[in-house]
């Protein structure tokens, strides 16, 4: 009697194709999620840089008593909008200590691709504050820092983004430069 032959069965072509398809679909999904995650991280990084720059500039400007901000020329007498480059020019007529501090601060800020706009607005004059409170004191103002930038969403797609921070200030703040 002849010995029994063992039949070894291997993988067929259909099974190999199904396994390969599942592997390709899984890897494609993982890489797509990775790409989306990287884009999300880049957007958050841009936003954090904008918030940090706006907060830093706003803190600095709020350390200057509002009475030391030079009077506004032309336009709305109670409001002045300037960009970062014009900020030094606005304070040229101010006392030298404030002017030097503003020049140092703007020179230290390098935000390529970001557009900063600073707004100074007088909400109440010194006379109206004194009339309402019957006590000496300065006016009330608002300083707003807006940062705008363009974010690359995908090749050929961009989106304009912005963040705005504002703070109320009074004339009686201490000067801490």
Note the total helix count: 4
- Kindly estimate the percentage of residues that lie in beta strands according to DSSP: 25-35%
Structural class: alpha+beta
- Please give the largest β-sheet: 4 strands, antiparallel
Number of domains: 1
How many strand segments?
4
Percentage of residues assigned to helices: 40-55%
Oligomer: single chain
Order of helices and strands: HEHHEHEE
User: Uncertain runs with pLDDT below 50, 5 residues or more?
Assistant: 126-137
Instruction: Indicate the radius of gyration in whole angstroms.
Output: 31 Å
Describe the structure.
The chain is an alpha+beta fold. It has one domain. 44% of the residues lie in helices and 25% in strands. It has helices at 13-62, 84-90, 96-108, 126-133; strands spanning 79-83, 114-124, 140-154, 157-170. It has a four-stranded antiparallel sheet. Strand 3 and strand 4 form a beta hairpin. The longest helix is centred in the first third of the chain and has 50 residues, at 13-62. The model is unreliable at 126-137 (pLDDT under 50).
Task: Summarize this structure briefly.
With 177 residues, the protein is α+β, with helices and mostly antiparallel strands. The longest helix has 50 residues.
Question: What order do the helices and strands come in, and which of them pair?
Answer:
Layout: H1 13-62, E1 79-83, H2 84-90, H3 96-108, E2 114-124, H4 126-133, E3 140-154, E4 157-170
Antiparallel strand pairs: 1-2, 2-3, 3-4
